Amino acid sequence: MEMVIIGGGAVLTRDPERPFIAGGGVAAGDDGLILALGPVSRLKREYPGASFVDAGGGIIMPGLVDLHHHAYTIYSRGLTPRGNRPLRYMDILEGGLWRLDRAMNLEDVYHSASAAFLDCVRRGVTTVFDQHSSYGAVTGSLPELDRAASRLGLRACLCYEVSDREGESKCRAAIQENLSFMREAARRTDGMRRGMMGMHAGFTLSDKTLEACMEALPATSGCHIHVAEALEDTTHSLQTYGRSIVRRLRERGVLGRKTIAAHGIHLNWEDVQILRETDTAVVHCAESNMASAVGCANIEDYAKAGLTLGLGTDGFGADMLGSLRIASLLCRHNSGDAMAGEGALPGLLFRGNPSIASRFFGVELGVLKPGAAADIIVCDYQPPTPMDAANADAHILGGVDGRSVVTTVIAGKVVMENRVVKTCDADGLLADARQQAADFWRRACV
Fold first, then answer.
1. How far is the C-alpha of 50 from the C-alpha of 27, rounded, in Å?
2. Closest CA to 26 of 275, 375, 358, 338
3. For 19-42, what is each residue's pLDDT tens digit?
4. pTM for this entry
5. Are 148 and 110 a contacting pair, CB within 8 Å?
6. How far from each other are the two terminal CA atoms of the chain, in whole angstroms?
């Protein structure tokens, strides 16, 4: 891998000591880390052997992190399973997603992940935390996601969704799949892959299964679980165990600094305190929550309470910049306050997400400065008004989304330049994915 300079644009560094460089550039080394920032002319003199990527006057910024994704659900796009017209959250699961993941084979896993991860690259997501489920093919599924991520050059933390819903044998296989992949990821030295213990949600996880997961979990790893996404999760825990789902998870040792709790919509004050005390990361998925009609997390209050917060897509595409805009608008709409979330929401994506991800990858993400990961994107945006460090977030919220991304660099490698994917034949990848999806739909009886 060669050195590369990305320059000729407004550099939004997310580094408090040097937040904005007008008309500057970033030099990345062959070790996947940032070497220097500054005027392009100086960078070219200092690194004469580096290739040059022209930002064309756009915004040069750190690559984005998606903290909660489900790549496999891309194969549900454009279809409604026969006989399923979901009115409730459980209809979506039982008649839709669970029905589909039972039909998946390893070829489906690979091609759906390839399409989803291509979408990540095109939308400026350089690091993804993906929770996978394919109860038609449990064993060997995470290596297929790994293969797809490697094909695109994506940084990824992967896990399998453990659940009791398909019986004890498949539940045990899911736990083992997580363990096998965690061991494999730990052996890698490139810093591009990590593993976690994936779990579905409390209402499909018995105490016995939670105990099995935690007994098997390496001390250096964490859990990735849905928490209080819908009232069903909260009600089930209260009726079955006599305690909130958050309290139950704490008692079982699930919560902690390396645990991701996706959604967190239906939380009481005790839940919020527990999540803060354990430093568990709560990941808001605004678009998915709206699509499933499960409610809206009170993110502004969570931020004021000191929770560790981030943003995810929950399989609802990979446009993190678009998700930020929707989350911001939803916060205002839900509260009736036109200023709600003004400071908190951009902080989730641009500070919270990379800070949480850095806990796992051992390299500084989400900032452009020497020694940080050379995960860099360029957005095609020509501001109609003056832009600087103080108002850059307002410019992004008002005029930039995932479709604005033209160049993506991951660990110093240019994986997309001027919207041309460099790491694979994108058209061929999507053609293969469509062909496999058609076969999958037939097998899934949809």
1. 8
2. 375
3. 999 999 999 999 999 999 999 999
4. 0.97
5. yes
6. 45
pLDDT at 54: 98
**pLDDT value of position 93:** 81
Do 116 and 108 touch, CB atoms closer than 8 A? no
Question: What backbone torsions phi and psi does residue 129 show, to the nearest 5 degrees?
Answer: -105, 110
Question: Per-residue b/e over 143-169, b at no fewer than 16 CB within 10 Å?
Answer: bbbbebbebbbbbbbbbbbbbbbbeee
Residue 211: how many other CB atoms lie within 10 Å: 12
- Dihedral class, residue 379 (left if φ above 0, else alpha if ψ from -120 to 50, else beta): beta
CA dihedral 365, 265, 198, 89 (to 10 degrees): -130
CB atoms within 10 A of CB 191: 14
Query: Whose structure tokens read 């004469």?
Result: 48
Distance of alpha carbon 264 from alpha carbon 309, whole angstroms: 10
Q: Domains of the chain, with CATH numbers?
A: 4-63+366-421 (2.30.40.10), 64-361 (3.20.20.140)
78-105 burial string, b = 16+ CB within 10 Å, else e?
eeebeeeebeebeebbebbbbbbbbbbb
Contact in structure between 72 and 132 (CB atoms under 8 Å): yes
| Spatial distance between the Cα atoms of 39 and 20, rounded to a whole number of angstroms | 12
Residue type, 416: M
In this predicted structure, what is the pLDDT of residue 95?
Answer: 75
Instruction: Output the six-digit token pair for 182.
Output: 């965690």
Low-confidence ranges of the chain (pLDDT < 50): none
Report the C-alpha gap between 378 and 410 in whole angstroms. Answer: 12
| Distance in angstroms (rounded) separating the CA atoms of residues 250 and 309 | 18
Largest CA distance in the chain: 68
Residue 250: closest CA among 229, 223, 232: 223
CB atoms within 10 A of CB 323: 28
pLDDT at 264: 98
Strand-pairing partners, residue 65, are: 127
Helix (H) / strand (E) element for 281: namely strand 281-284
What's the CA gap between 110 and 394, in Å, rounded? 38
pLDDT at 338: 76
> Residue 86: its pLDDT value, please?
67
The crossing angle, in degrees rounded to 10, of helices 106-122 and 426-443 is 140
Coil, strand, or helix at residue 65?
strand
Residue for token digits 């409610």? 295
Per-residue pLDDT of 146-197, as tens digits, reads 999 999 999 999 999 999 999 999 999 999 999 999 999 999 999 999 999 9
**Residue 186: exposure state from Cβ atoms within 10 A (0-12, 13-18, ≥19):** middle
